[in-house]
Fold this sequence. Notes:
Elements: E1 2-5, E2 9-11, E3 17-19, E4 24-25, H1 34-41, E5 52-55, H2 60-78
Antiparallel strand pairs: 1-4, 1-5, 2-3
Amino acid sequence: MKYEVIVKFQDLEDQKYEYNVGDLYPREGVEASDIRLKELSTKANRRKKPLIKLVEVKDKKSKKSKAKNEEKDQGEANGTEESSGGEN
């Protein structure tokens, strides 16, 4: 499971690694315990507010497909999609 940082913080259990809003937690190559995840995602931490939230992370292939579909939809909405027909 991955979490998204919603409040900038330094992880005191990871050599004070600084996480910025929008970063994924934990960072690549680091594992966080269930207890740590609960601390950071609830008020049960030094700052007394959630610092991370659970997010769904899709694989890179899914993200690329979604981006292509969004570009296609954007082009259709703007009337800029190139036609594959024979009209000029």
